[in-house]
Structure formats: structure tokens, C-alpha cells
Design a protein that fits this description.
This protein is an alpha+beta fold. It is about 50% helix and about 20% strand. The strands form 3 sheets. Strands 2-1-5-4-3 form a 5-stranded antiparallel beta sheet. Strands 7-6-10-9-8 form a 5-stranded antiparallel beta sheet. The protein has a 5-stranded mixed beta sheet with strand order 11-12-13-15-14. Helix 2 (about 55-65) runs antiparallel to helix 3 and helix 11 (about 310-350) packs across helix 13 (about 385-400). The protein is rod-shaped, with a radius of gyration of 54 Å. Residues about 530-545 have low confidence and may be disordered. Keywords: ATP-binding, Cell membrane, Kinase, Membrane, Nucleotide-binding, Phosphoprotein, Transferase, Transmembrane, Transmembrane helix, Two-component regulatory system. It is a multi-pass membrane protein.
Length: about 550
């Protein structure tokens, strides 16, 4: 049967403290006995030496007046707690015995009188007439300095053991009461521990900690857990990377959040206590992020907060890519809508039996479309790129702008360094910008010229328009995120994406004026993969309107 952690802990505590009490009891029993023997030895010696110097007793012993000795010693015995008091003469014979008066005249028992008869006090444990006893003997010395007798004061070891046992019993009773209190404490303590660990077993806690650590490190977003005092408890690797923190996690743990992230309103304690927040745009140090803050509550008591955040630029980039896909789908919808209109027109002519006009209409519509389709399909091997160019051409015609493809256009294979998704994003953004710039110019709208050429050395993409050009006030910042001259919509990311994709593969961008008006964007993406072309900085590039 599997025993729970609470029962294991309770039993362990009880067994440990019970064993500890047993060891302490044995030690205390021996220590009490030792101390009692020392105390009784000193007491017996003092009594023996004090009795030995009593003048009346000394005189009676010198005269060997047994009756006088007995009368005097009975008074002394009445005031002593000794088990026995014995008086002997200088020959080792009994003159008085406090318990057995019939031994008077007989030899002292124990064979330990030699040193005493030489004038030395001794303390020994010997077996006498009453049994084993602790006894102290002192010499009785007359005025001339001669040993004339012996005083022996003793305590039976059985009496000492009885005293020791009484003390130990008292301690044992206190220990039992303490042990009972310990049982109660251990039970409630283990219940409290179990409650705090949510009834989990140690193995489950260890597994949970490992899972939490793995999960925290696998989260792409930055995660910081702080306690109610705003001290960092947990921070994952993504958060350290986003905030460019070089310290290891163990050093960051315990620091206040203001020591790691420069103070911002997002970490204002009054606001944090008031409510949680989601997807709030903040600035953590030098990074613009989208952050969320959620309180951690346990039994309606605040334990801290969990902060999650992500680089806003990444979200904006993803949004721009999705917008590009949306525009690509929109182009296909426009082509479908335009084709339906043509089919409806043709159907009407056929119903009116205007066959000659229908034929001329088909020829007129298909001639340009077929020419463009043949040109694009013959010059570009990628179906996705062909679909994009056809869709952009149809969209441009709807807006009154024509796309003019350079006869040198040629891309019969995929670019080695640039992925198809990035290529579609670059060309799509360039064409959208050129079409919109041309549309905003005065009529008549001149065509947007397009060159896409892949040779052995590099991929060249060039889009030239006769639009409104680039405002000189922003010409040095057109590739920065959020910079735009458009009036509405999701803008300010297209050129940033283009610059990001091109520089990542070691390419370069040139922007120049298209006299008398408009702009030419020229992109050069290396194909050989040897030494990349140097990427001009904003200051080095020739950005012109």
C-alpha cells in the first residue's frame, strides 16, 4: 500500500523524536546517577570528618566507652540521612553500628581500613554487612596526633538507585507529555505542509518543477514572475534575451523589477493592485513591447504577478506579412471579378446574336491579356510569382495604372539566398507603393516600369514610377518602421520589411529620383554567395525624391 507524504512525514518525525528522547533518557539516567554518587560521596565524607573531630566522641573512643559512644551516636544518627554510621577502634573492631548493634566487638567489614588507620580519609564502594554501599571513612585522631579510631558514614547503592529512579520517573512523565504534544504538533504540522504543497507528493513536486522549467524556457514570449514586493521570482531565457540581460537567472532572482527594467507606469504598484492588463504597449528599457500583467491569487490573498511580453516589432512584421497575403488574395479576387464582368458582357452579346461584335470583343480583351500572360509565364518559372504579377497588373488597371514589364525580365529559377515568401513580399510591396504613388499623381497616369532579372551574379529588382516622389523631409527615414506617406490603412512596415529581407542576405538597395518626377527603387540581391555586396547605410545610400 502506498503511504502518503503526510503519513510518512508524521511517522518520521515521531520516530526521530522518540529515538531522541530515549537517547536523552539513557544519558540523563547515567548522568543523574553519576552526579548523585558524587554528591553523596562528598556528603558522606563531610559527615565522617565532622563526626571524627567531635571532642566527646574522641574521648569516648579513646576510653573505648561503648555505652557513651552509643548514647552520643544515636543523637547524631537521628539528624543524618546516611544509611548507616559505624564507629571503629584503632584495631578495626566495631565500637558502634547504627543499624546492627550486635556487631559491636566484631571486626569491621570491607578490608579498606589500612589507609584510614594511617590518617587518611577515603571514599569507596564496598560490600558490607548491609550490602553494597558508598561509604566514606575518616580517622579519629587524639590530641597527640595518634589515630585512635575510625568513623564510617555510608549510603546503600539501592538507596541511591531509588533516588535516581525517582528523578528519572519524573523526567519520563515530562517526556511522555512532551512526546504527546509532539505527536499533536507533528500531525498539524504535516497537515499544514500538505496543504501548502496542494496535497502533492515530493516526486510529483519535483516533476512539476522540471515541467515548469522546461515550459518556461520553451515559451517564445518573455515571462517574469514577481512576488507581492515586486521582487523577481522567475524569469525565462526569452525575457533575458529580449531585455539583453547578461546576468544568470540565479543572480536576477530576488532583485526588484525596477532594478532590471527602468521604471515605467506599467509597474506602478497602485495600478498593478487595481486591475490586470492585456496587450498593453510599453517600453521596457530600450525595447518597445506588447505586455500583459496578471495577478496571482491564493485563497484571496495576493501572491504576486506574472508579466508576459513580446517584441512589438515581431508582431508588426507578422501583421505586415499577413497584410501582404491579404493583398495577394485581394488581387486574385479582383481578377475573378474582372473576368466575370467580361463573361457577362460576352454572354449579353451572344444572347443578342451579335456574334461579330462578340468575336471582336473577345479578340480585343484577350489580345492584351494573353500577351501579358504569355510574357509573364515565359519569363518567370515560379507560379506564385506569376500569379502575383498578373494580380498586380489587374489591380493596377482597375486603378487606372499600367504595369510595363521590361523586355529583359527573366527569372527561370529560384533565387538561391532569398526565399519565395520573401521575394513575393518584396515585389508586392514595391508594386503597391509604386501604384499608389502613381495614382496620387496628376493625370494622365504614366506606366509603372518593372524589371526583374536573375543572372549568374545577382537578382536585380527595379520598380520605377512617375508618381509623387518621396518627401525630402523623410527621405533618410523611409526604411524605418512606421515611416509612411500614405493616408490610411496598415502602412509604415512595407519598406522596413523590404530592407530587412534584403540586408539579411547581404543585398543592397538604391533609391533615386525618376526625372522629371517619381522614384526608382533598385534592389541587388547576391546570387553567388561568395562575398556579399556591402550594405549601404542610410547616410551612404542615395535616397532621392
Amino acid at each position: 500500500m502506498k503511504v502518503s507524504f503526510q503519513i510518512k512525514l508524521f511517522i518520521s518525525l515521531v520516530l526521530f523524536f522518540s529515538g531522541l528522547f530515549v537517547l536523552l533518557g539513557v544519558y540523563y539516567y547515567k548522568d543523574v546517577g553519576r552526579q548523585l554518587y558524587q554528591e553523596m560521596s562528598a556528603r558522606a565524607k563531610i559527615q565522617a570528618e565532622e563526626i571524627a573531630i567531635i571532642p566527646n566522641l574522641r574521648q569516648s573512643v579513646a576510653d573505648k566507652d561503648i555505652r557513651a559512644i552509643a548514647q552520643f551516636m544515636h543523637k547524631v544518627v537521628a539528624h543524618s540521612d546516611a544509611s548507616f554510621i559505624v564507629i571503629g577502634d584503632d584495631k578495626g573492631m566495631h565500637l558502634f553500628h547504627s543499624v546492627h548493634s550486635d556487631v559491636v566487638g566484631k571486626t569491621l567489614v570491607g578490608d579498606d581500613n589500612t589507609e584510614v588507620l594511617h590518617g587518611k580519609s577515603i571514599t569507596t564502594i564496598r560490600k558490607g554487612g548491609l550490602g553494597i554501599s558508598l561509604r566514606s571513612k575518616a580517622p579519629i585522631i587524639d590530641d597527640a596526633g595518634r589515630v585512635i579510631g575510625i568513623v564510617s558514614v555510608g549510603y546503600l547503592t539501592s538507596y541511591l538507585d531509588t533516588i535516581t529512579l525517582g528523578k528519572v520517573i519524573n523526567i519520563f512523565i515530562a517526556a511522555v507529555l512532551l512526546l504527546a504534544a509532539l505527536f499533536i504538533f507533528s500531525w498539524f504540522f504535516t497537515r499544514s505542509i500538505k496543504k501548502q504543497i496542494f496535497s502533492l507528493e515530493p516526486r510529483e513536486i519535483g516533476l512539476l518543477v522540471r515541467q515548469q522549467k522546461a515550459m518556461m524556457e520553451s515559451i517564445y514570449e518573455g515571462v517574469i514572475a514577481i512576488d507581492s514586493e515586486l521582487r523577481i521570482e522567475v524569469i525565462n531565457q526569452a525575457a533575458r534575451k529580449l531585455l539583453e540581460l547578461s546576468q544568470p537567472t540565479r543572480e536576477l532572482r530576488g532583485q526588484t523589477i525596477d532594478e532590471v527594467i527602468a521604471p515605467v507606469p506599467f509597474f506602478d504598484r497602485s495600478m498593478m493592485l487595481e486591475n490586470d492588463t492585456h496587450d498593453e504597449i510599453c517600453r521596457f528599457n530600450q525595447l518597445t513591447v506588447i505586455a500583459s500583467r496578471v495577478r496571482i491569487m491564493l485563497e484571496n490573498k495576493l501572491q504576486g504577478w506574472v508579466i508576459t511580453f513580446r517584441d512589438r516589432n515581431e508582431i508588426d512584421t507578422l501583421s505586415a506579412q499577413l497584410s501582404q497575403v491579404k493583398r495577394y488574395v485581394d488581387n486574385l479576387r479582383i481578377m475573378r471579378h474582372e473576368q466575370l464582368n467580361r463573361m457577362n458582357t460576352l454572354s449579353g452579346l451572344l444572347h443578342m446574336e451579335r456574334y461579330d461584335e462578340a468575336v471582336r470583343y473577345i479578340q480585343a480583351q484577350s489580345e492584351h491579356a494573353q500577351e501579358l500572360l504569355d510574357f509573364i509565364s515565359s519569363r518567370f518559372s515560379s507560379p506564385t510569382l506569376c500569379g502575383l504579377l498578373l494580380g498586380k497588373a489587374a489591380r493596377a488597371r482597375e486603378k487606372g495604372v499600367e504595369l510595363a514589364f521590361d523586355p529583359l525580365c527573366q527569372m527561370d529559377r529560384a533565387c538561391r539566398l532569398l526565399g519565395e515568401a520573401e521575394l513575393i513580399s518584396i515585389i508586392g510591396n514595391l508594386l503597391d507603393n509604386a501604384i499608389e504613388a502613381t495614382q496620387r499623381a496628376t493625370l494622365p497616369h504614366e506606366p509603372v516600369e518593372v524589371l526583374i532579372l536573375l543572372n549568374e551574379r545577382e537578382l536585380i529588382i527595379e520598380v520605377a514610377d512617375r508618381g509623387i516622389g518621396i518627401d525630402p523631409a523623410i527621405r533618410d527615414h523611409i526604411f524605418e518602421r512606421g515611416m509612411t506617406t500614405k493616408r490610411s490603412g496598415d502602412h509604415g512596415i512595407g519598406l522596413y520589411l523590404i530592407a530587412s529581407y534584403v540586408t539579411q542576405v547581404g543585398g543592397s538597395i538604391e533609391v533615386s529620383a525618376n526625372t522629371p518626377r517619381g522614384t526608382i527603387f533598385s534592389l541587388f540581391i547576391p546570387e553567388t554567395g561568395n562575398v556579399p555586396r556591402p550594405v549601404p547605410t542610410l547616410e551612404d545610400q542615395n535616397y532621392a525624391t
